[in-house]
Design goal:
Radius of gyration: 18 Å
Helix content: 25-40%
Largest sheet: 5 strands, mixed
Structural class: alpha/beta
Strand order of the largest sheet: 4-1-3-2-5
Shape: globular
CATH topology of the largest domain: Oxidized Rhodanese, domain 1
Number of helices: 8
CATH class of the largest domain: Alpha Beta
Number of domains: 2
């Protein structure tokens, strides 16, 4: 059984004291022997961390003592080795760069669809009111090359900021459909969904928990390939182990 716990977690929440949080978070994570990346910004927090399970869960419990991060949902996976070289805790303008003024996922979130509901829609070939479902992959082409949902709308982008313009050429595919956007852990969908809704790109929903949450809840139904992750494991299979390494070795 792999012994290293890996977590991915984020939350959009107002953080007025982002600069002062960086030091305590870095000190606590370092003391716990964790490696990975934590981004802190006025719009929220984003974490990719790995370490000994009790130490990592202890860090998350400590973080949750701050009401803004209480109950933070973390997607878990496992590996034999820590897939990060070092710990980085950074203060950023955005926890996921989109560079679009006026986009506020805190005040104007799009509705979620949970993984079991999405699987049921895909099994049926329509949503609960009979509308077609278009799965919108908001990731870049390098990530998509590792795997995506069957029939998903993928875009020729190399950076998340290119998403709105790339979608203009596909607007005809979204008309009259229920659009379910998805990404690795959900953060890009949650950031983009308010803009896509305002630009009338169909009835936009977002996949709760992203691809990793879908794998954890329902496995690999309607999925082909692996899911690219931003660490040394490169990609995970639907059983949340490194692709091509059934024993979980990174």
């Amino acid at each position: 059984m792999p012994s290293i716990l890996n977590i991915a977690a984020y939350r959009f929440v107002p953080i007025d004291d982002a600069a002062s949080l960086r030091g305590p978070i870095a000190a606590r994570a370092d003391a716990a022997g964790l490696k990975g990346t934590v981004l802190v910004a006025p719009e929220g927090i984003n974490l990719f961390l790995a370490g000994e399970p009790s130490a990592l869960r202890g860090f998350l419990a400590w973080l949750g003592d701050d009401a803004r991060f209480a109950g933070l949902a973390a997607k878990e996976s496992w590996s034999e080795a820590v897939p990060f070289a070092r710990l980085k805790v950074k203060l950023k303008r955005e926890i996921i760069a989109f560079r679009r003024d006026g986009i506020d996922p805190i005040r104007a979130p799009a509705p979620f669809v949970d993984p079991p509901t999405l699987k049921r829609w895909l099994d049926a070939g329509r949503d609960d009111v009979g509308r077609p479902v278009v799965l919108l992959d908001t990731r870049n082409r390098e990530e998509v090359a590792h795997g995506t949902f069957d029939g998903a709308l993928t875009l020729p982008i190399d950076d998340f900021v290119q998403l709105p313009e790339a979608l203009e050429a596909e607007r005809h595919r979204l008309a009259g459909a229920t659009v379910v956007s998805f990404c690795t852990g959900g953060i890009r969908c949650e950031k983009a969904a308010p803009l896509l809704r305002d630009l009338c790109f169909g009835d936009v929903r977002q996949l709760e928990g992203g691809i990793l949450g879908y794998f954890d809840a329902v496995g690999g139904a309607h999925w082909q390939g692996g899911c690219f992750v931003f660490d040394d494991r490169v990609a995970l299979s639907p059983d949340l182990l490194p692709v091509g390494n059934p024993d979980g070795q990174a």
